Amino acid sequence: MSGKPSDCIVQLQVGERHFTTSRSTLIEESTYFESLLSGRWNTAREDGSYFVDADPDLFVHILRYLRRRVLPDVRFFGISALETYLAERNYIDRVKVCRWVADTGDGSLHTRDDSSLSVEYHTHWVNLGEVYVCPRRLAAHRGHSEKCGRRCDSAKADGMYTYEEEHGVRVFAVYTRVTIAE
């Protein structure tokens, strides 16, 4: 051990967010942080902080647990049944996470009014195939040779239709639903 007092302040960078807490909060129940902060390895960054490659949105809940052992709001609002439920960890068997991916097809973003459902959108460049190109380069005719008339036909270089590869963005939605069984 490096002789650090157990209540010294520790700066963490978890993912892209920064957290400040005490060393004793981190090491009391976490073997990971006990090892990270043991002084056996030189893992501190130049500014004295420690980098943890984890999801900062989830780490908020981990740190909240390490500080109070149960969600502090439960105790603050006097919800003793929920405090007991969380302390006994009965929720682990009741939580179900379901995740699926859907291609939005037209690239539009769909919203749903469902608090148990979260949606993340991811884009991907794709080859949409070859599309007709109007000899006069009229955008309204792109992909629709039937819209071209005599003036377009007379502008054809060799009397042949022209096609180009077209690329576009596909949008995929990753849905996650977390439910808790009764």
Describe the structure.
Residues 8-67 form the BTB domain. It holds the Pfam family BTB_2. The protein is of the alpha+beta class. The protein folds into 2 domains: 9-93, Potassium Channel Kv1.1, Chain A, CATH 3.30.710.10; 99-180, no CATH class. 23% of the residues lie in helices and 33% in strands. It has 6 helices and 6 strands, in the order ββααβαααββαβ. It has helices at residues 23-27, 31-36, 56-68, 72-76, 80-87, 150-154; strands spanning 9-14, 17-22, 50-52, 95-103, 117-133, 162-180. It has a 3-stranded mixed beta sheet. Strand 1 and strand 2 form a beta hairpin. The longest helix has 13 residues, at 56-68. The radius of gyration is 29 Å and the shape is elongated. The model has no long low-confidence stretch (mean pLDDT 83).
The number of distinct β-strands equals 6
CATH fold field value of the largest domain = Potassium Channel Kv1.1, Chain A
Q: What proportion of the residues form beta strands (DSSP E)?
A: 25-35%
* Tally of individual helices: 6
- Structural class by helix and strand composition: alpha+beta
Task: State the strand order across the main sheet.
Answer: 2-1-3
CATH class of the largest domain: Alpha Beta
Q: What is the global morphology? A: elongated
- Helical coverage, percent range: 10-25%
Distance between the termini: 46 Å
Q: List the helices and strands in order.
A: EEHHEHHHEEHE
Count of the domains: 2
User: How would you characterize the largest beta sheet?
Assistant: 3 strands, mixed
Q: Whole-number average pLDDT? A: 83
InterPro entries: BACURD1-3, BTB/POZ_dom, SKP1/BTB/POZ_sf, T1-type_BTB
Organism: Aspergillus keveii
Protein name: BTB domain-containing protein
Pfam family, one: BTB_2
